[in-house]
Write a structure and sequence with these properties.
The protein contains 13 helices and 5 strands. The relative contact order is 0.14.
């Protein structure tokens, strides 16, 4: 087993992978591979808490994994797998269900938000989602979890469960995971192009709100030309009073790997139109090699499945000791 600290992260196969996912998650994953024992999962069990088209879910799952690889995730350095290929996730989730309190799940704001959006399908899985997320993390003795603001509550529950069970059985069954906040430039959170006060989301029904990784040069330019800016014409970074311009400057800063101040200086005396057109060209140029690599990887489905099989086998090897130790603590007869 590796001596590197273990890091787990996953993305649901819903919507379209977009520039916000790349900047907020995948770009950082690539950097982490040398320093951590990384497990990067396509968490499809979470995706079915809302209704999915089976054909679309299957295609999107393979697409997302191909994007992971195209962006620089190396299956020889990291464990890349589909969540449902590792049955230990579901097994541990059930065991954790029996130690998770209804009151804890009732407090989860994501359940309330998603229930409001999916009133015709408020299912048990939607309510119980945080227990499965806890299983995803605890299964691998994870020490670090890259986490956004919308998942902090779930990580806190995961930590509470680990501490509760370790105390109850008087042994360290689970490592207590810590949040991993990667260093980002000022304002590194990428916001919606049409509503810069809301986070950019791959599941947004209005596709003008985000730049998908698969968007071509023409689509990127069209979306950025329509992006909301602010009153006035001067280009400077002011998150409170000029959130639209601040969002575009953040995108430019992250993609070009320049500090915000340098980007602002570059656009001194120029108009919003200059910023939008130049940013579109910058993003298109940046995405082009990733898109070409994606096409190459996705066209060889046999190799893609082989990578996923290898990843699932490796994940199971890491997961089984944790599951068996907890089953033993519970008094199960082990097979």
């Amino acid at each position: 087993m590796t001596s590197k600290p273990t890091l787990f992260s996953g993305i649901q196969p819903s919507g379209d992978l977009m520039i916000g996912n790349y900047i907020g998650s995948i770009k950082n994953w690539v950097k982490m591979q040398d320093d951590y024992n990384c497990l990067f999962s396509l968490v499809n069990l979470h995706a079915i808490t809302v209704e999915q088209s089976p054909e679309a879910l299957k295609k999107r799952s393979l697409d997302f994994v191909a994007w992971y690889l195209a962006a620089g995730i190396d299956p020889d350095k990291s464990t890349v797998f589909i969540q449902s290929h590792v049955p230990e996730h579901s097994e541990l989730a059930w065991l954790l269900n029996c130690h998770t309190y209804m009151g804890e799940l009732n407090r989860m704001t994501q359940f309330k938000d998603k229930s409001a959006k999916h009133e015709q399908n408020i299912n048990v899985g939607l309510f119980d989602y945080p227990a499965l997320m806890a299983a995803d993390i605890l299964l691998y003795q994870t020490e670090k979890v890259p986490v956004g603001a919308d998942q902090k509550q779930h990580l806190e529950l995961t930590r509470d469960l680990a501490i509760r069970l370790n105390n109850k059985f008087e042994r360290e069954l689970f490592k207590v995971p810590e949040p991993f906040i990667p260093p980002t430039s000022a304002g590194g959170r990428i916001m919606s192009l049409q509503d810069p006060t809301a986070k950019m989301s791959k599941s947004d029904e209005n596709k003008d709100n985000f730049i998908a990784l698969a968007d071509d040069r023409k689509q990127i330019l069209k979306k950025l030309k329509k992006a909301v800016t602010d009153s006035g014409s001067e280009i400077y970074y002011d998150l409170e009073n000029k959130p639209g311009v601040a969002n575009l400057l953040t995108l430019y800063s992250v993609i070009s790997d320049q500090p915000i101040d340098a980007v602002v200086k570059h656009f001194e005396g120029k108009m919003y139109g200059h910023l939008k057109i130049e940013l579109a060209e910058l993003i298109a140029d940046y995405l082009e090699p990733i898109q070409n690599r994606f096409t190459e990887i996705r066209s060889n489905e046999t190799e893609l499945h082989a990578i996923l099989t290898k990843g699932a086998d490796h994940a199971r090897q890491q997961a089984q000791p944790t599951l068996r130790a907890f089953q033993e603590a519970l008094g199960f007869v082990l097979r």
